[in-house]
Design a protein that fits this description.
By secondary structure, the protein is α/β, with parallel strands linked by helices. Helices cover 52% and strands 12% of the residues. A five-stranded parallel sheet has the order 2-1-3-4-5, with helices on both faces.
């Protein structure tokens, strides 16, 4: 797999030094930007796998601005950003990491550190395959098994409840499509009986769900102590309304003190 690394630094020599330090990495090409504006243009126009970013650069868009915009974007926040800057105060380092920087290296690294630490950080960020992974990959290829590069990007994460909800809906959709196919294949009499049974079953499920909802709310809000003819729910604002009791319904309430027969 080929990787494109974006080097963002206003000093040409710094960009050249980093390129030399990373020259031993396989399948890596470099793109360069001397300021924040051009860095964002490259991000938007090219497929970038990693960026090495300086914080102090000329122009209106500083390094922090580049980092902030990339990490705020659904399309680009997956790109690992290694900050390589002369800014060494704790507050700046903390801010960069909180904004989503993958790592923070203080410039300048000694030549030996630059040749060892920086390549290792880049390999970790790009998730380079280990020797064991490479061996397994070679074995698969030797046996003629298809090896496919990933063609999907993670753009976000949803909660377990949201996963469960969409899984239920997807499964329900597949189930209904299957039922529809079966209905199409039925004759008129069989179709009538089947539809009747389905509607009765669905009504029973909905009625049970409604009863359970009202029972839970009666217990939670102690509505059983409310004296009234009928409890209604205003769907627009969530207000629960109760009609005043008439003389005729007073006797009914005495017979049904919990008022559950009035639920809708």
């Amino acid at each position: 797999m080929a990787y494109q690394i974006l080097l963002v630094d206003d000093v040409l020599l710094n960009r050249k030094v980093v390129k030399v330090a990373l020259s031993g990495l396989p399948d890596v090409t470099f793109l360069e930007a001397a300021d924040g504006v051009n860095a964002l243009k490259v991000i938007h126009s090219e497929t970038i796998n990693l960026a090495i970013l300086d914080l102090i650069m000329p122009g209106e868009v500083a390094g922090f601005d580049v980092l902030r915009e990339i990490k705020a974007s659904v399309l680009y926040k997956h790109i690992p950003i290694i900050v390589y800057s002369a800014v060494s105060d704790t507050a700046s380092i903390k801010q960069a990491l909180e904004l989503g920087a993958y790592d923070y290296l203080i410039k300048p690294l000694k030549p030996q550190e630059l040749q060892t630490i920086l390549p290792e950080k880049v390999k970790d960020a790009l998730q380079f395959p280990s020797k064991k992974d490479e061996q397994q990959l070679a074995e698969k290829e030797s046996y003629g098994q298809a090896v496919r590069e990933p063609d999907q990007l993670v753009i976000g994460v949803v909660t377990e409840e949201e996963v469960a909800a969409i899984k239920y809906l997807t499964d329900r959709k597949a189930e209904l499509k299957l039922k529809l196919k079966r209905l199409i294949d039925m004759d008129k009499e069989e179709l009538y009986c089947t539809l009747y049974d389905m509607i009765i079953q669905e009504m029973g499920e909905v009625s049970t769900a409604c009863e359970q909802w009202w029972d839970e709310k009666y217990d939670k809000y102690q509505w059983a102590n409310i004296v009234g003819d009928e409890i209604e729910l205003d769907y627009d604002n969530g207000q629960v309304l109760v009609k005043k009791m008439t003389k005729e319904s007073k006797k009914h309430h005495d017979d049904d003190p919990e008022g559950k027969s009035a639920k809708i």
